Each structure stands twice: as C-alpha cells, then as structure tokens.
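Schema walk-through. Below, the input block comes first and the output block second. Nothing else is stored per chain. Lengths vary across the set, and this one has 100 residues.
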Amino acid sequence: MEISPRKRLNFENTEIAFRNKSNADLNSAYWLFKAIGSNFLTQIGPPITNFFLKAGLPIKSIIKATIFKQFCGGETIAECEHTIGQLALGRVGTILDYSG
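--- output ---
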C-alpha cells in the first residue's frame, strides 16, 4: 500500500514546521538548545539547580518558563489545553502522559 504524496511527512519544510511559533518562541528555543548543547552547562547545571532548589531559592518559575515550557504542555490537563489546541492547529495530535 503506497501513501499518497500529499500525506507523506516532510521534515525539511521549516516554514510549515514552525508556522505556529512566534519569533520570540523560536528565539527562546534557539538559546535554550544552544545552552543544552554546551557540555559545560549540562555538567554544572543539574548540581547547581538542585542546590538552589534545596536552598529554597525561587527558581522554579525560571525552570517552568524555559526548559519546562519547551518540553512540556503543562502540569495539569487544564494547563495542557492551550498547547493541545496550538498543536491541533498544525494537525499534530497529542497524547497526555503522566509521571510522578
């Protein structure tokens, strides 16, 4: 059974892939992935983050606004609804996952 050319996935067309993202979203993602790509930052980041969390410093909002925002839709179904809607506009399906 052959898939019609119209239904084939094309990962090379970045205009389609990112059309629902603002310039600010793309810029944030760029800098986040640049930081993640740094061996130095990925080595020192987790221990420093854990120290800050254990010390009670208010960094959870920074984590949620950067790393969490890039990789997660939300912490509750209600928080995920916006992301689910945005993905649906681009005809991307979602599966809710839970880990505790």
